[in-house]
Prior knowledge:
By secondary structure, the chain is an all-alpha fold. The chain has 15 helices and two strands. GO terms for molecular function: intracellularly calcium-gated chloride channel activity; volume-sensitive chloride channel activity.
Amino acid sequence: MALSRQDYIAPWWxxxxxxxxxxxxxxxxxxxxxxxxxxxxxxxxxxxxCVSAVGLGLSLMVLxxxxxxxxxxxxxxxxxxKRPDTCCxxxxxxxxxxxxxxxxxxxxxxxxxxxxxxxxxxxxIYNANHTLGGIGSLVGNSLGSMQVGLKEHLERLDEIFxxxxxxxxxxxxxxxxANNIIQQLTAMPDTxxxxxxxxxxxxxxxxxxxxxxxxxxxxxxxxxLICLIACLGLAKQSRWLLAVIMVCAVLTLIMSWVSLGxxxxxxxxxxxxxxxxxxxxxxxxxxxxxADIVHYYLYCSQSLPYPFQxxxxxxxxxxxxxxIQVQGLLQYSAAMYPTAEKDLLGIQRILNxxxxxxxxxxxxxxxxxxxxxxxxxxxxxxxxxxxGLLYLCLFSLLxxxxxxxxxxxxxHAWTLIAIRDRDYDDIDEEDPFNPSRRIxxxxxxxxxxxxxxxxxxxxxxxxxxxxPLPSTTSTPEYMNQSxxxxxxxxxxxxxxxxxxxxxxxxxxxxxxxxxxPGSSSSRSLRQHEMRSFNRSSR
Length: 538
């Protein structure tokens, strides 16, 4: 069943992309017709690609301004400043990771759809190229056999049948039929040039598509790796991982905007072709094929005239007439001219081969095969191909936004890690509650344990405390309990002498937190100091 040209309807997204403004470098509107060889049309596609370059420049400017303000406005935090809240950074990292993962999923789908569409396009082009190659081969073989083989046999038969005027007249008639066939075969359009063009287009398209698919695949994998490294860096709170993330995120941000520009320009160009593909093909084949032949294959309608009807009719009638003449010569002249039988049988084989080629040529010249390949190519590039490019553009846009957010969140994570490291290092060596100081001040060889506090009040003063019993005597119970668990004495358990027991000394950290009575850190430290004081009083 012949396919109707109306089976192809350009999808709505191709019309949407086709309506994008086409401006040259002088900001003048150009024709939207697909003309890849026209300089103005090329400038319009480059202009669309440069729009993403503007987006890249704005993103880098905003990030630079943000980071500059963050560095300039950042002051060294005093000891009174609380530790910043990590909730915003955590949620920003989580949302950014989810957006990147979603963008990667969209990118994988779009890359696969584009690859399927281009594969369908190249497969259809190779099929059409094979059909055109078969037509050219059949025409060439038939033309060669008529011009060389048939001519040689007729010349030898003319010498053999020279005494017989009727036979020579039959040979001249056969030569006239052969000339008619040669004339029709010569008038056939040369499909070899079209075949070479289609093969070059298919090979170039396959080459470009392979590297396009590979580039997007590497970009998708890179985005996933950066997302995983970001999660690892935030979990480990590693500064060098965050530095690696910053560098990779900037590079990926640039590649995302570049891929967005290239994908947009390519999608718009293909959409311009998909909206009116027939006009472009007619313009490209006007030098090698006539307009009626091109329209016959593009539309494949029964209302259009068959451009090869005259050629096939003359070919068929000439071959049939020559076969009848050869059959008559074999029947009547074989007894009189036995040497002519070999040449007559040779002519018969050539005619049978030409008739077989004629049947094959009739099938290949039918519009259904080439028209089906044409429709498959259009459906592949205009539906799957352009749809996949749109998904890839969406992936590039989401990835660019996500990496912008990531670049804004990483400096805050860096600041939190710096504050954490500073808090860990801010430990007073003279703090009696510092475990390292308690371990370092304990010396088993010392025979006495001296008091660590002094106290003076309005009721009197105690300048010193009586030392405990020497270490050579039995160890007090409170010392045994401490040694049982830590192998070190706990000086805070030493009973303080006198009713006016002095409070424990406070570390600078404790004094700092006491300035903020509402903070959770100050409350916890006060409770710890009061518990220690109560134990020592008892």
